[in-house]
Amino acid sequence: MGLGCIALWLAIAAHPAVGQDSPIASPTDRVEEGRVRYENGQLSESVRLWELAAQEYQQNGDRLNYALMQTYLSLAYQDLGDWENAKAAIDRSWDALVGQIQDRPDVSGVFARTFNARGNLELLTGQTEAALATWREAEAAYRTAGDEAGVLGSQLNQAQALQTLGLHRKSLELLESIAQTLETAPDTLLKAQSLRSLGVLLQMLGEFDRATDILERSLAIAQQLEDSANIRAALVALGNTARNQQDFPAAFDYYQQASELPAHPVDRVELQLNQLSLTLDRRQVNAAIALVSPIRDGLAQLAPSRPSIYARVNFAENLRKLSPLLKGRDPVLGDREIAEMLAGAIADARQLTDVRAESYAMGQLARVYEGQQRPEDAQTLTQKAFLLAQRANSPELTYRWQWQIGRLWKEAGQRDRAIEAYEGAIAILRSLKAELNQVNNDFQLSFNNSVEPMYRQFVEVLSQADATPEQIQRARETLETLQVAELDNFFRDENLTGRSTNIDAIDPHAAVFYPIVLEDRIEVVLSLPDRPTRRYATFLPQTEIEATLANLYQSFHLAYSSQKRLALSQTVYDWLIRPAEADLAAADIQTLVFVPDSFLRNIPLSALYDGEQYLVQKYAIALSPSLQLLEPRALEPKKLRAMAGGLTEARQGFESLPAVAEEVRQVQAEMPAEVLLDGDFTRNTLRDRLSAAPFNTVHLATHARFSSIANETFLLTWDGRVNVKELGEWLTRRQQQNPTPLELLVLSACQTAEGDREASLGLAGIAVRSGARSTLATLWSVRDLSTSELMSEFYHQLNRDDGISRAEALRQAQLALLDRTEYDHPFFWAPFVLVGNWL
Fold first, then answer.
1. Measured distance CA(107)–CA(101) in Å, rounded
2. Is the CB of residue 644 less than 8 Å from the CB of residue 667?
C-alpha cells in the first residue's frame, strides 16, 4: 500500500488501542481486523470496521481511542482519494483530543499519530511544506511519548517531504542520520526498513553501488530476524537496483530468490509481474509467455483491492509490450480478454469507491482501445479517466491522461485540440517537477517513457509545414525545455531553473540550431538574430536517421574509408545546414550554436562536410545544453589564471598520457598557473585547491568518461575518481567562497562510454554542474601529442589582444591542426567541443 506515514502503522501494529483489554468481539478486535484488511488492500472494509469501533468508543465515552480511530479512518480515506472525509476524520480526532493532557505518554502517542496522519494528508494534497512542519510536530510528540520508533518513523516521513520538495540531498542527509542513529542499535525491523528506504533513495539518485551495499545490509537484518516479508522486500529492491544498472542476470536472480519465499497472494503476483517485465526488457519471449498463465491464475484468486487492480493494469500493460514480440504467433491473451480484465478492474475500483484506481484502470483500457483502432472510444474513456484523476487529486495520473488526450487528438488530425492538450500536460508536468524522482510513487514518471516522448510529440505537432511563426517559436521553447528536463533527470537530485532567452540578446552574429529526431523525420528549428524563427525537415524513418548518425560517428575512426566518411558527413550536412545556407549568409552569421538532441550530441558537428569544406572552415561552432541555462559574457583577454592538473602515468587501468607534462607546461607558458601533476593530483588535493585558489580557468589533462548516468560520469585522479556530482559540489563550494567566476573548464582527455548512445549527456552534465561559463572537452580520447598542440594554440588565441571569442579561439586551434598533414584527419581535431558560453 502507499503508506506515507511509516511510523504510524508500526504504532498501530504495536498499540491497536489505548488502555483497553481485548475480549472477543471488542472494539480492539475490530481495530485489528481493520488493520489486516487495510494491509490486504481492502480499504472500504477497513473503513467499515473502524467506523464500528469508533462508534463503540464514542458510546463508551472513550475519547482517546475514538480520536485514534478517526486518525486511522483518515488514512484509509486518504488512500481512497476521498480528501473531504479524510480531513473530516482528522478534525474529529482533534475535537476529541481537546482538553487531553498532552504531556501524558499515552495521550501524546495519540497526538503523534494524528499529526502523522495530518502530515500525510497535507503531502497528498500538495501542501508539502505544511506536511514537513506537521511531521516535525509528530516527531516531538513521539519524543514525549517515549516512542523512539515513532520518532525515527516521523523523520522518515520528513525525508519523503524533502524529496517531494526536490531537496533530495537534504532528504539523503536525514536518512543517513537515521541510519547512523540506528547503527549501534539492535537489529530491528525498523532498522531494516530505514536502511531499505535509504537504499531505494540512493537507487533513485543513481548511486547504485551505495544503494546495493545498504540494501544488502537491510536484507541481512531481515534474514537475521527471519522476517520473510522484509526479506522479500529487500530482495525486490535489490532486483530493481540491478535492473536499473542493466544487470539483468543479477536482477533475475534477486527476483527468483524473492519468489521462493512465502508471500501474500498480491505480493506473489506483483513479483511475477516484475519478472515478466524483466523478461520483456531482455526480449526473452518464451520466458515471458511462460509467466502469463501463472499471473492470470493468481490475479483470478485475488479479492478486490487496490493492489489487485494495479496488478491487473500492470499485467495488461506488459501484455501490450509482449504482443509485437510474438511475430506471427497467436496472442497469449487476445485484445478482448485484456479489455475484459481491465473492465473488471474498473468495476472493482467502483465497488471499493477507489477513484484513483478507477482512473488508472480506465486510462489503460483507453490505450487498449487505441491499439484496436477505436479512437472515439479511446478518447471518451481517456476524458473520463482524466476527470477521475482530478477528483482523486492525482497529478501524476492527470498528467498521463492529459498527454494521452493530446496524442489521440494528434492521431486524429485535430491539431489545435492536440496543442491545447499538450500545453495542459506540460503545465501539469511543471507542477510535478520536484516530484518526478519521488520514491515510492505509485505512478512513478519515468523520464524516458513518460516525459521525453511527450515533449517530442508536442514538437512534432507544432512544427508542421503550415506552422505559424508563433507555433515555430513555441517549438523552439519546447526544445529548450526538453533539454533542461533531460538534465534534471540526469542529476536527479535537484531542479535546474532557466529563463527564456533569444539569440538576439546574446550574440547578433550567432545562429542557434535545434535539431531533433522524430518518428518520421529529422526536424530543425533555426533561431536567427532579428528574424522570425524558422523550421525545415528531412523526412526519413527514425531508424534510418539513427543508423546514418551511428555510421557517421564510427567513420571518424582512422581505419574508416575517407570517401564513405565524407559521404555520410555530407548527408548530415544536407539535413542540418544546407537549407539554412542563404539565411546564414544574409544574416552575416559567424558562429553556429547547436542545442543537439539525443545521439546528435555524440557527433562532432565541426566535421560536417558541404562537398568542398568542413563546417569549421566556415564558422566557429559551439554546443549549448540550453540557452535558458546560458550566462553570456565575453572573456577578458590577458586576464586568464589557471589551475592545471593531470596524469602522465597509467593509473587504475587507464593508459599513460606522457604528453600531458608538456601540455601543462604550455598552459603555464600562456598564463599564470598552479600545477598538480601525478602524485600531487589526488582527490583531496584537487578538492582543496578548487575551493581555495583564485583562478578563472581549470585545465584537467586526465582521463574522463562521459555517460548518460551521472554516477558513471567521472574524471580520474591519482588515487581515485571524481564523479560529476562531486565535481559540481566542489566547484559550487568554490563559488560560495571565491568571488572569481570560473570562466573555463577544460577536460582534454575525455571519451564517451562505449555502447552508451547518449553518453555525451554526461558532457552537458559536467558543463552545467561545474558552474563554468564554458567547458571545452573531447568526444573521444585523442592522441595526447596532438591534444597538447591544440590546447597550446587555443590558449594562445584566447590571449590575443583583439579578444576573439572562445568559439573562434577553438576554431583557429582546430584549423591549425587541420592545416598539418599529420593531423588533417577529423579524428585529431573534430572531437574538441565547446559547451556553454561561446563569447
1. 7
2. yes
Phi/psi at 512 (5° precision)? -115, 125
Is the pLDDT reported for residue 136 higher than 70?
yes
Query: What average pLDDT does range 706-728 have in this prediction?
Result: 82
Q: Let me know if 447 is exposed, middle or buried by CB neighbors in 10 A (0-12, 13-18, 19+).
A: middle
Q: What radius of gyration, in Å, describes the C-alpha atoms of the chain?
A: 30
- Cell numbers representing residue 651 in the block: 593509473
- CA dist 455 → 423, 663, 778 (Å): 10, 43, 29
Cα–Cα dist 106/100, whole Å: 10
The pLDDT, as a whole number, for residue 711 is 66
Contact, 309 vs 349, CB < 8 A? yes
Cell numbers describing residue 664 = 601543462
Cα distance between residue 298 and residue 375, in whole Å: 32
Question: For residue 745, what are the β-bridge partners?
Answer: 698, 775
User: In angstroms, rounded to a whole number, what is the distance separating the alpha carbons of residues 255 and 310?
Assistant: 19
Give every CB contact of residue 329 below 8 A, 6+ residues apart in sequence.
none
What would the pLDDT profile of 437-446 be if each residue is shown by its tens digit?
A: 433 333 344 6
Q: pTM (2 decimals)?
A: 0.73
- What is the phi/psi pair of residue 69, to 5°? -65, -40
Assigned C-alpha cell, 631: 550566462
The average pLDDT across 383-406 equals 92
Query: For position 7, what pLDDT does the model report?
Result: 37
Give the confidence band of 5 by pLDDT, cuts at 50, 70, 90.
very low
